[in-house]
Amino acid sequence: MRPTPTARAVNGTTGTVITLHGRPLTAIAFTIVANRMVAMDGIRDPVRVPC
What we know:
Blueprint: E1 4-10, E2 13-20, E3 23-33, E4 36-43
Antiparallel strand pairs: 1-2, 2-3, 3-4
């Protein structure tokens, strides 16, 4: 099975949660300014990644 990205709000901003076998693996939040992505913040700690 392959990791599956899903669009989600992460910490109140645009982001994605990547799951593997239905369990959250990584959360990535994007900072958008003037229709451009200017930053990405990722979390791969299974305790902190939202379920």
